[in-house]
Amino acid sequence: MALYHYNRKQRLLLASFALLFLLLLGLCHFWSARDPGSYFFQPNEGYRPEYSVQRIHESLEWLSAFNQSGSSASSHATPGISPPRAKTACVGIVTVKRPLQQDLDTTVGSILDTLTPDQRAALTVQVLFALSDPSAHPDYNQTWVNNVVDRVLTYDDLADAPGWIILNLEKKKNIKKKSLIDYRLGLQACYDMTDAPWIIMLEDDVVAQRNWYEHTMRSVQQIEEWRRHDAIKDWLYVRLFYTEKFLGWNSENWPVYLAWSVLVVSVCASAGIYVRRAARPAQGVLTNPFLLVLCGICVPLLIGLFFLAGRLTWFPLQDGIHVMNAHGCCSQALLFNRENVPALLEYLEYMEDVVPTKAVDSVIEMLAARADLDRLAISPSQMQHVGAASYKEKKKSWKWEGPYRVKGAHGVWSMGFEKAYRGESTGHGRLDLDGAV
Ligand SMILES: *[C@@H]1O[C@H](CO)[C@@H](O)[C@H](O)[C@H]1NC(C)=O
Ligand SMILES: *[C@@H]1O[C@H](CO)[C@@H](O)[C@H](O)[C@H]1NC(C)=O
């Protein structure tokens, strides 16, 4: 099929296709730079922190006002005064010592800094310092902790915390099993110490968007509305953070992708043959060898480019609530439905002794699958994961790597979060009564 087999018009068409294809390649390079499932993904673009840097700054600034001894009388933090019952949500944070940097202050600051007094009163914030010697945690002695957090917990405060097991796990550096126990204890503490219908479990290295509380509560109301009308199944959690990393093309769907590709090629071939029959001038162009190149090379090249550009480039998640029963990752920020928490607690405890030990998020998924519970996600993410490192990775030494100080370890990062809330007003404590449930 050398080029001299083709007439002038055909050669012109092929050259135009080549140009078009190059143009599309250039566009994909630009369009898909932030789609982690794309061949054209550029880490420096996708992982560039923008909104989260602003939020970290804001929340630390807010928190610093509570960081002086004697500032506890301030209006926001009224620990011990507000009744522990009749809460809307309990925020449970389990914190451990991390390499490089602690982000607990950012996490706590960013979930509280924009709340109205009513919203603040509807929340209980509990932080479990998950170390057998809590004073070894750099934040344990910080003044803001007691001024802002409703309940500061250590293993000693939890009746069923198995002290010697924890010590042993710390000694053996069995972080996986300890994470399972810690997660259960944090969840249990929220369940036992409040009657909140929603229990929000956060890792100690997330940052929340300015309007997270209102948005989340409105979403949960919507979900409950659907539930009452049987539009969705019973549900275990709503994901307040997800990474787009695992939402690309899925290898298990290859038969679907193949079928569509074959269909597209067949339609092109049929269309070519039809046009050749119907339109006289096309007869000199749409010859058999030319159609062969068109359907055998050009169209497959376009299909290939389509897939390389990445699934989210073509089908981004719409803003709103999604059922995300597969490929949702990870457990940085989940809002649990109180009704199903006892089953999860029981399952977490059971899984603590199963070898090999599973990660917390896998265990949660396993329970949801067993109990046939839906898992939902709010898009865009309400929180971002900004922890640069954790001791879960077994490294010899720790140092800052890559171009950004604010980043999610292992690329556990929400690309959407950084762009979704741009251009928002920076007004603190805005009053919006719809949000208060
Ligand atoms: C609180 O004060 C301590 C000691 O001065 C300081 O190290 C820490 O960074 C402060 N934290 C915040 C959130 O301002
Ligand atoms: C916290 O305070 C206690 C008592 O004041 C002290 O012994 C301990 O070393 C402090 N820990 C840190 C991390 O500053």
From TrEMBL:
GO terms for cellular component: Golgi membrane. The keyword Membrane applies. The chain crosses the membrane at residues 254-275, 287-309. One of its GO terms (biological process) is GPI anchor biosynthetic process. InterPro entries: PGAP4. Residues 1-33 form the signal peptide. Coiled coil: none annotated. It comes from the Eukaryota. Keywords: Membrane, Signal, Transmembrane, Transmembrane helix. GO terms for molecular function: glycosyltransferase activity. This is Integral membrane protein. It comes from Aspergillus heteromorphus CBS 117.55. The lineage of its organism: Eukaryota, Fungi, Dikarya, Ascomycota, Pezizomycotina.
